[in-house]
Amino acid sequence: MVDGVELRHLRYFLAVAEELHFGRAAARLHIAQPALTQQIQRLETLLGGRLLDRTSRSVALTPAGAVLRERAAAILGHAARDLDEVTRIGQGSQGRLYLGFVPSVLPLEPLRGVREFRERYPLVQVELVEGFTTRLMEQLGHGALDTAIVRDPDPQPGIHTAPLVTEPYMAVLPADHPYAGRDSVTGGELGDQPFVFFPRAAGGRAHDRNLAPLHEAGQRPRVVQEGTTWTTILYLVAQGLGVTIAPRSATFTAPDSVRVLPLTGTSSDTTIYVATRADDDRALIRNFLALLPGHSGSRAVN
Questions:
Q1: For the CA atoms of the chain, what is the radius of gyration?
Q2: Please, is 175 exposed, middle or buried when counting C-beta atoms within 10 Å of its C-beta (0-12, 13-18, 19+)?
Q3: What is the DSSP letter of 129?
Q4: Which residues contact 29 (CB under 8 A, 6 or more apart)?
Q5: Rounded to an integer, what distance in angstroms lies between the CA atom of residue 106 and that of residue 129?
Q6: Which end of the chain has the lower number of beta carbons within 10 A, N or C?
Q7: What Pfam families has UniProt attached to this entry (predicted)?
């Protein structure tokens, strides 16, 4: 745009070009007619040519004025749309949200908040990223994710976490296991069994909490097979490769060929958290957290 030309100049000119009468245009703009005349003259000076042919009885567009009438409407329309978009982004109702999650939260409430968020803010594109807790926390810290729903994350500087859901652990055995017919089992009773489990690299704190029922009984697990998801682990258990201890929600989709038993003699449990960067106070994040089931609105920094 030519230096000095402002959107108000275009708005004033467009009113005159549409009314072809300075008095009516001034009334429409709620300004005095002399002020309007002065602004149109200023615009003509900035653009270096006449835009209007004025007589005591009529106002007509010059060829340059006819072109500007068309372009001014387009420019003002684009400006309004662009500024509206900026406003929506500032209010968190438009943009893109990168949300990480661990697969074991799928049966629980937190991810159901994504649907409500999408319905409430249809102009926000939500990108879901699946992964281990450790990897998701790394991506969050590097800015590749905006927020993450994780299980028992290790503390990380600059990352806020807030608890969403706490649940117990369950023992998962092959259907033909000697303990399969029991009502419950203790961690100590599983201590000498071959274990199918996830690698420690997936999350050190989650790994330790998950095996706490054994450690509390003075037992050390003998891991004979690792799996990268709970679905894989449960199906390996179903094939008789070993037993495992899993969060209750992770067992909701267990195959019929396993037996899921309550664990007794332990106070260990597991918690799902929502994690965000400490310095990220965007409205987009606040809007998402407000609709996240179980979120209290407060955040704790590690």
A1: 32
A2: middle
A3: E
A4: 11, 12, 15, 36
A5: 13
A6: N
A7: HTH_1, LysR_substrate
Q: Which residue type, as a one-letter code, is found at position 131?
A: G
> Please, what's the b/e burial string for 27-52 (b: 16 or more CB within 10 A of its CB; e: otherwise)?
eebeeeeeebbebbeebbeebeeebb
Residue whose tokens read 């203790």: 186
| Partners of 166 in beta bridges | 271
Is the C-alpha dihedral spanning 158, 163, 165, 170 positive or negative? positive
pLDDT of the chain, 302 residues: tens digit per residue: 577 888 888 889 889 888 888 889 889 889 999 998 898 899 888 888 898 988 777 889 898 888 888 888 888 877 777 676 677 777 677 788 899 999 888 878 777 788 888 888 888 888 899 988 999 999 999 888 999 999 999 988 999 999 999 999 999 999 999 999 999 999 889 988 999 998 888 888 888 888 889 988 888 888 999 998 888 999 999 999 999 999 998 998 899 999 999 999 888 899 999 999 998 888 888 889 988 877 765 443 33
Which phi-psi region, left, alpha or beta, contains residue 68 (left: φ > 0; alpha: ψ -120 to 50)? alpha
Contact by Cβ (8 Å): 108, 92: no
Q: Specify the pTM.
A: 0.70
Q: Which residues does residue 165 pair with via DSSP β-bridges, in sequence order? A: 272
Identity of the amino acid at 47? L
Check the CA dihedral 280-286-288-293 and report its sign.
Answer: positive
Closest to 280 in 3D by CA, of 289, 270, 271: 289
Q: Which two tokens stand for residue 253?
A: 């989709």
Contact 235, 100 (CB under 8 A): no
For residues 244 and 233, the answer to whether their CB atoms sit within 8 Å is yes
